[in-house]
Structures are given as structure tokens and as C-alpha cells.
Amino acid sequence: MVKRVLSGIQPTHDSFHLGNYLGALQQWVELQSTHDAYYCIVDLHALTVEVDPALLRKRILASAAQLLAIGINPEKSTLFIQSHVPAHNQLGWVFECITGFGEANRMTQFKDKSQKSGADRTVVGLFTYPMLQAADILLYQPELVPVGEDQRQHIELTRDLAQRFNSSYGEVFTVPGAHILKSKAKIMDLQEPTSKMSKSATSLAGVIELLDTPEANIKKIKSAVTDTGREVTFDEEQKAGISNLLSIFAAITGRSIPSIEADYVGKGYGDFKKDVAEVVTDSLKPIREAALTYLKDEGALLEILRVGAERADAVASQTLADVYQALGLLPRA
Ligand code: ATP
Ligand code: LTN
Mean pLDDT of residues grouped by 10 in the chain (333 residues)? Predict the structure, then answer.
């Protein structure tokens, strides 16, 4: 039988960025050819940050357009919106009831994000976020979950919850594994190469966006922070900026880092940055154009998402029914 994969992405910004693309989304495209793929735009997770309704709506559509533009094929993959499948919230509640408070409190994404906004402005949804994520995953019984390194802990919790449920109430869930590609798992911010490139960065100067114009992205790459040295060599400790650009170059071209280093012996950072800018914009330009084309026909986009939700709902409702039955909840007569 073909194995199943599932992953999700938040519609929290006007555009996805290069970290999302290289760390996760490229794998989504590859896996749809070999696996039964479910890809979800996790709009409910996006409610954990303050929302502007008109903007959220726009971002959900832009997310769908970008996923199609990078090559997610709705004939091969089930592409859908989380809030269109009510079982996500329903199973999320069940997981909230089997997750320890201390266990949830140890999630580093919660700790980081709540620290940034301060205790008074941190919402409860941010705390229960990983249980909703576990529901997103386990409803579809996937074997693999393609994500970036930052999601490893959430996938571990998901595995723990699946095992805990199975051992208390019977084998309902497949226990999934994370699919994290080491070489691409963490793309760093161009201005702050010790932090990951992130949609919620305070400044977008170091974030390469898929929907940005090629000119804007060339400018960002050319002004990427580097050290005072001259050699284009990989050394994450001493040369975080150059190492990040090398990783990006390697991830996009499929070349090895030593072979790229060899090309730049005797050349300076300027030549190297120019070439990084070129490979990045060459690969992003067609994606941007395709996404803008998809966005012109909202009706067609909504129809793709409707079909996706229908397919997703069929699988998710069955899992939820099995869970409720295992828990001893009475079915409605
Ligand atoms: P935020 O930082 O606002 O939480 P994000 O930019 O991390 O958002 P997500 O929607 O949380 O975006 O992530 C989507 C996918 O992209 C996840 O699988 C995540 O692991 C991956 N990802 C995000 N940032 C990076 C990065 N800098 N490098 C590699 N993968 C990344
Ligand atoms: N928490 C993830 C987004 C996410 C997800 C998922 C990823 C929500 N549900 C299910 C994989 C599977 C993030 O912040 N990147």
C-alpha cells in the first residue's frame, strides 16, 4: 500500500519564505509522487496571533496559490483548509485531555513565543497549539510528517500522544515519524544569521519571500550580513552568514557545499552573493508568477479547496468516530 504523508503550514504572513520552501515545502512536492499526500493550510493555528479578518482571508488564499505554484498538484495531493474539517478541533480537545500540563509547558515553541509577547498577552490557544497540531496529523494516520527542524518537538509529542492513546484505549492511531532533511532543515535570517528565517521576524530585511519581486530579493541577498573575512567557506561558528548563503545555494542547486566552495577560491563575497541572488531569483520567479496567476481566479482556487476538504473530511471523520468509540462516547442514535 502507498504510504501516507501529512503536513501543515500557517497562513500567518503575506508570503511564504525561503526557509519554508527549502525546509519543508519542496519535500511536500517530492513526496506527493511517491505517497498519498495530505497538505493542510492551518488557519485555526493562525488565530493564536492577533488577526485582521480581511488580511487573514487574503493570506489563506495566497497560501493556497503558493502551494499550487510550487507544484502541489491537487490531482495527486489532498490540499485543504484546516477549519473546513471540524474533526481537527474535536480531536484536538481529546488530546488536550490526555496531555499533561507540565508536558505542554515544556514545548519550546510555546516558551519562545509566549516569552516574546509576555504572560499577559499570551493566549491559551498558544499553549494548546501542539495538541491541535497532533490532531491535524493523527486524524489522517500518516507514516511521515515532512517539516523543518523547529517542529521536531511537536512531532515527538504527537508520537507520545498516539502511543498513550493506543495503550489506554486500543490501537487507533498510526505512530508517525518526522521527515526532516538535515541539509535544509534550518535556513537562517539573512540579517541575523543566528536566528531561523521566520515569518514573524521583526524585520523582513533578512527574509526572502516567495512573492517578493526578484529585485527586492536580490537587494536582500546582496545586503546579507557576512563577517569581515574574504573566503567563501562553510563554518557555522565563525561565518554564520556565509555558511547560510552556502546552504541556500546548495539546497537550490542540489550541489555539494565543497564543490561550491571550490568555485569561489580566490574570489570575494561580492561575486558569491551575486551568484546566490541569481540562483534564488531564477528559482523563485516562476513560482511568484504562477501564484499571481492562481490568485486571479478565486473561484477556481475555492473549488480546489472544496474538493480537498471533502476528501480530507471523509478520512478525518472516520478516525474521529473510531476515537470516540474507543473512549466510550455514545454515538448519536
Ligand atoms: P513562524 O516563525 O511565524 O512560526 P514559520 O516561518 O516558522 O512561522 P511555519 O508555518 O511555522 O512558518 O512553518 C512551515 C514549515 O516551514 C514548517 O515545516 C517549518 O518547520 C518550516 N520552516 C519554517 N522556518 C524554517 C527555516 N528557517 N528553515 C527551514 N524550515 C523552516
Ligand atoms: N506547527 C507547525 C504548523 C503545523 C503543522 C501541522 C505541521 C500545524 N499543524 C501538522 C505539520 C503537521 C509550524 O509552526 N510550522
Answer: 95 95 94 98 95 97 98 98 98 98 96 87 95 98 94 97 98 94 84 90 92 97 92 94 96 94 94 97 97 98 98 98 98 91
CB neighbour burial string for 242-277, b if at least 16 within 10 angstroms, e if fewer: bbbbbbbbbbbeeeeeeebbeebeeeebeebbebbb
CA distances for 53 relative to 14, 57, 157, angstroms: 13, 6, 31
Prediction pTM value: 0.95
Provide the mean pLDDT of the chain: 95
- Is 296 in the active site? no
Amino acid at 87: A
pLDDT by residue (tens digit) across 70-114?
Answer: 999 999 999 999 999 999 999 999 999 999 999 999 999 999 989
pLDDT tens string 283-322: 999 999 999 999 999 999 999 999 999 999 999 999 999 9
* Dist. CA 19 → ligand 2 center (Å): 14
Could you identify the atom of ligand 2 that is nearest to the CA of residue 154?
A: 1
Calculate the CA dihedral of residues 160, 163, 165, 168 and round it to 10 degrees: -120
Report which protein residue has its CA nearest ligand 1's atom 20. Answer: 148
CA distance 92 to 160: 14
What does the DSSP assignment read for 78-107? EEEEGGG-THHHHHHHHHHTTS-HHHHHT-
d(CA 133, ligand 2 centre) in Å: 6
Q: Tell me the C-alpha distance between 196 and 148, whole Å.
A: 10
The total of other beta-carbon atoms located within 10 Å of residue 196's CB is 17
Known catalytic membership, residue 113: yes
